[in-house]
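Hey, I'm writing a tutorial for new members on how sequence and structure tokens pair up, and I'd like a real worked example in the thread rather than a made-up one. If someone can provide the structure for the chain below, I'll link this post from the tutorial.
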Amino acid sequence: MSIETFAPLALNTFSTWVTLLDPSDVPPGMSPNLGDVDFFPGGVRTRPGLVSQFTALGGAPRINGMKTYVNTNLAQALLVLDSLGNVYKETSPGVLSLLIAGGAQPNLFLASTTHFGREYIALADGVLGQDLPRQYDGVNYDRVSQIGPAEGPAVADSTSGSISPGIHQCVVVFVTRQGYWTAPSPQISWTAAGSLQASVTNIPTGPSNVVQRLLAFTGSGGANFYHVPATMVVNDNTTTSVTVDFSDQILLSGVSMDYLFSQIELQEQLGVVDYAERLFWWGERSNMDNWRNLTFDGGWDASGSGRPLGWQLDPTFGAGGSRQPTAVVWGDAYQISADGATAGRGYIFQNAIADAAGNPLCVINTDYSVRARVARTSGLTAGTLRINAYSPTAGQLGTGLAVTVSQAGTGYQEFTADLFTPQTSLPSDLTLRVYADGVPAPSGQAFLVDNIEVFVTTAAQDPSLVRASGTELPEAYDGVTGIMTIAENNGQGIRAAFTLRNNLYFVKERGMYVTATDGVNEPALWQVEEVSNKVGTPSAHGVGIGEEWVVIAGRSGLYLFDGSTPTKISQEIQPTWDAINWEYGQHVWVQVDTQHKRIYVGVPMGSATQPSQVLMLDYTEGFGDPLIAMMTTPLRSRKWAPWTIAANSCALIERSTGVAEVFFGTNNATGKIYALTPGAYSDDGAAINSFYSTAFLAATVAALSGRNLFGYLTAYVPGAGSLALAALSPGDVVTSALGAWTLASPASRDMEQFTNVLAERVSYQVGRTRRARGFR
């Protein structure tokens, strides 16, 4: 039979993947089935391959976060978080070096923002913050905010001076290397005789990041604190005694320090964004913030007793406790050393009924829990680290936290336990205590404890709370004016945030809200309005930033938002979207590549518990609905394709070449980071099994309707290797292999193939063979 006898069925458009329709109903020009392909105007080709960019990280980790950090000199560096908790930095092009071993707890994910010349980092499990908020300035990997001195100094009259007679108060403030002024110490007071100076002793010293201490005083009989920079600065972290002099007139013209008393230490957070020269954090893991020195960063008894300030030392079992400045989660830790003979060691305690200012701590009818990071030295073989509530008159309440030697490791792990159950009354002498018992041994070995947190068991998180820093004060968080509440108690947690034009948006699991600075008030007084009560995301990385628009990945679909009404742009693949394992939706991520006009959505498909596939959306020809576009001319619309790439993270990473490349952080335990690389025809040496199935074609002439012979196929296909051909019947009931085309680039002519398929309609599939490098 001559090919001239065949009536041509032209297929000039190779467009989007459609799973919403039955495969036999997918319109011509679209595909019911394809994989690992990329689109270009009028055609389709194998997607770019993945090329490994660095030596594989040790320990076979997953890559749980990547971000380009830009310092104050505009120098760029890649930061990487792996699933072992290690943080890496690209020290030269193509070389990753370990920055901080154990810089986070294992299996956490990184979300960060660059501002004020630093990288501000939230470390979370995808739902809640699970580790200290961090900042990196190119040298130091510090926590964001910290407690102040846990005890005030001692003050007494000294030699002749100008201090007014009467009762004065004094506090101490730590100043960190990042320029942060902490909350003040508890106030101490003395009665000045008048016309004398003040001798200030026992000035607390802080962790190694403290570079100065500030003193602040009240005037005679006053309650407001002031600091005189010329005379009340201790320019080191070692001096513990100074003599100061001031008149009330000079003091009251100094710097008011009262605002510092309402500052809190920032808790663990899910995410962070910068807006209006402030930082905003959300996804907080809550704890009670008015205990004294539970992080052991508030100073130590200058006598060398090993007592952390704010705690008391038990006279019988207090021996063995000491400051640990190096083997820490951050700052300082408390070390309890064994002697191999004493039953209890390092016993410290503090009031559990009221804090230093007299405010309540534990109250009746409330269930309390405690968490702490615990480690041990490698040689410790006996003993148990305990944190519990104890009353000398009523005994111990509840079991509390008990970590045995066999449970503790040489690296810090977090342990959580119920502190005590609801009580109808509480003894007035109730204390929180920390100690080791069980005759810890051998002598010289130790338990280490850091970052203790006490929290109300039924309020372990603040899902609707946002913490806002002061303007240009990224570590200052006011416990009253720096709080925003987004649709409180509506059954959803804040998952993501972004800025668009002059507005700040917060995205909950099924809702979106907007606020903006009013230029006058602190964030607690800003207006918050609902944008949508349907569109949201379950993931901290579920929003992708485009060109004056964003895309939001939620359970019902992917939505485009430019400040007006959100528009769904994934309806044509809705059955596929529904097959995402939304039980693990917190691990979904979205990345927009505005250069190549692609959106990548990493999703756990089917039973996967981590992203196992990338849903790629090409918007080169716009975001139009393809099912509507098929009815119009020209046929310009969005195009979807699934890519077989399993990655826990994806980011646009700035390179030394001056371009941003799409990097994927693998989750297959290879410890590799890949770049999506045009011109690469494999994924790190593994073949890319790309294929494209056409819509099911049928004769369009009435006289030829019914069962027809599809006898001949021709196409223009440049490429490399061999391209396998197959014909499919509806429902894939029958698949007929049609041979293969040997490709060349550029192709010198159209490829052709006799097919001789007898059917009412047929789909042709082209795909790579094992030897193929790619097709177009």
